[in-house]
C-alpha cells in the first residue's frame, strides 16, 4: 500500500486550501505504488491531488518548475494548481501536498498507435535544451542497484544471478551518452490519452537528467511488451516515431537493447525494495515480471 496515511477528515481540511469550490465528489486513484492520489470534483474545477512522504521540498520544487518549463516547450502535461494563498505545494504533517489540473481521458492500452504516439512525444521531450538549473542526477543508477543488493542480501537467493546482471549491465551502460531531460517513468499509468492523442504526461516526480537511452529503455518497457514479452511490431512503431523527431546515432541504436534490460533490472530492484519496505504485494509481482524480461532477453 502507498505509505501516505491520511484520514477522510484530514483530506477535507487539505482540500479547503484549494479554490475549487464546494466539493461534489472525491475518488481515490489506487494505481500508485507509493503515493496517495485523489480525483476531486469541485463546483469550480476538477483537480488531481497527491500526497507523498517520499520526497524532499527541493524535489517537489524541481517538479513544479519542470512542469512549467515543459508547458512552455509545448509538451502535454497536467499543470500545477495553486492553493488559495498562491502556494504551489505545502506540508501537511509529514506529507507534501500538490494538486494538478485533472486531464480528461484514459490511460492508453498497449497498441501500435499508442506506442507511436509516446515515441513521438519522447523524441520532442529529449530535445528541450538543458540548463544548469535543470540538471538533476538520476537516482536509479548503478550505485542505487548495488546499495539495494547490499542492504537486502536475500534478493540474490530469491533471484539467482541478479547481482551478476547488475555488474555486467551497469558496465555496459556506463560511459558518455547524449544527456536529456527524462521523464524516468513512462508507463501507461503515467500517460493520459484522448482520441489516440496524448493530452498529458503525468507523475513527473521522477524526472531528472540522464541518457536519453535510459528514458527510451523505460518507455519501451512500458509500451512495447505484450504478455511480458517484447513485441517487435510495438518496438518498431515506438522507435521509428522517436527517430522521426530525434534520430539515434549508430552507437545509440546498437546499445538500445542493453538499456531496455538495464531499465527493467533497475526498476525490478526498486520494486523489490518497495515490496520489502512496505510489504507491497503488487511491487513483488511487478519485480518478478521485470526480472523475467531480463532473463528472457538474455536467452534470446
Q: How would you explain this protein's 3D organization?
A:
This protein has 300 residues and is of the alpha+beta class. The protein has two domains: 8-101, 2-Layer Sandwich (Phosphorylase Kinase, domain 1); 112-299, Alpha-Beta Complex (Aminoglycoside 3'-phosphotransferase, Chain: A, domain 2), CATH 3.90.1200. Helix content is 46%, strand content 17%. It has ten helices and eleven strands. Helix 3 (112-125) packs parallel to helix 8 and helix 6 packs antiparallel against helix 9 (250-278).
Key traits:
10 helices, 300 residues, Aminoglycoside 3'-phosphotransferase, Chain: A, domain 2, single chain, globular, five-stranded antiparallel beta sheet, Phosphorylase Kinase, domain 1
What CATH architecture label of the largest domain applies? Answer: Alpha-Beta Complex
Structural class: alpha+beta
Ends apart, CA distance between termini: 35 Å
CATH level-four homologous superfamily name of the largest domain: Aminoglycoside phosphotransferase (APH), C-terminal lobe
Strand content: 15-25%
- Helical segment tally? 10
> How many β strands by DSSP?
11
Output the CATH topology of the largest domain: Aminoglycoside 3'-phosphotransferase, Chain: A, domain 2
Percent in helix:
40-55%
CATH class of the largest domain: Alpha Beta
Mean pLDDT: 92
Helix and strand succession?
Answer: HEEEHEEHHHHEEEEHEEHHH
- What is the makeup of the main sheet? 5 strands, antiparallel
C-alpha-based Rg, rounded: 19 Å
Task: Indicate how many domains the architecture comprises.
Answer: 2
| Mass-distribution shape | globular
Return residue spans where pLDDT drops below 50 for at least 5 consecutive residues.
none
Amino acid at each position: 500500500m502507498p505509505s501516505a496515511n491520511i484520514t477522510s477528515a484530514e483530506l477535507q481540511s487539505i482540500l479547503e486550501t484549494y479554490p475549487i469550490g464546494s466539493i461534489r465528489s472525491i475518488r481515490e486513484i489506487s494505481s500508485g505504488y507509493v503515493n496517495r492520489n485523489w480525483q476531486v470534483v469541485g463546483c469550480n474545477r476538477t483537480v488531481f491531488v497527491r500526497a507523498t512522504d517520499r520526497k524532499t521540498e527541493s524535489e517537489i520544487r524541481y517538479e513544479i518548475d519542470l512542469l512549467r518549463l515543459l508547458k512552455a516547450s509545448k509538451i502535454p502535461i497536467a499543470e500545477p494548481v495553486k492553493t488559495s494563498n498562491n502556494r504551489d505545494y505545502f506540508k501537511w504533517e509529514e506529507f507534501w501536498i500538490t494538486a494538478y489540473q485533472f486531464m480528461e481521458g484514459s490511460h492508453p492500452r498497449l497498441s501500435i498507435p499508442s506506442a507511436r504516439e509516446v515515441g513521438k512525444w519522447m523524441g520532442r521531450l529529449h530535445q528541450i535544451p538543458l540548463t544548469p538549473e535543470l540538471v538533476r542526477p538520476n537516482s536509479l543508477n548503478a550505485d542505487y542497484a548495488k546499495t539495494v543488493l547490499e542492504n537486502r542480501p536475500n534478493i540474490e537467493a530469491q533471484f539467482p544471478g541478479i547481482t551478476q546482471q547488475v555488474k555486467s549491465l551497469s558496465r555496459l551502460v556506463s560511459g558518455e551518452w547524449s544527456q536529456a531531460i527524462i521523464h524516468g517513468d513512462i508507463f501507461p499509468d503515467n500517460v493520459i490519452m484522448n482520441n489516440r492523442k496524448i493530452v498529458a504526461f503525468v507523475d513527473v516526480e521522477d524526472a531528472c537528467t540522464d541518457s536519453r537511452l535510459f528514458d527510451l529503455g523505460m518507455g519501451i518497457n512500458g509500451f512495447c511488451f505484450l504478455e511480458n514479452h517484447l513485441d517487435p511490431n510495438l518496438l518498431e512503431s515506438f522507435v521509428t516515431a522517436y527517430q522521426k523527431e530525434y534520430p539515434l546515432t549508430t552507437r545509440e541504436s546498437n546499445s538500445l537493447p542493453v538499456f531496455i534490460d538495464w531499465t527493467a533490472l533497475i526498476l525490478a530492484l526498486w520494486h523489490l525494495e518497495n515490496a520489502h519496505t512496505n510489504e507491497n504485494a503488487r511491487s513483488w509481482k511487478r519485480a518478478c515480471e521485470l526480472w523475467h524480461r531480463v532473463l528472457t532477453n538474455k536467452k534470446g
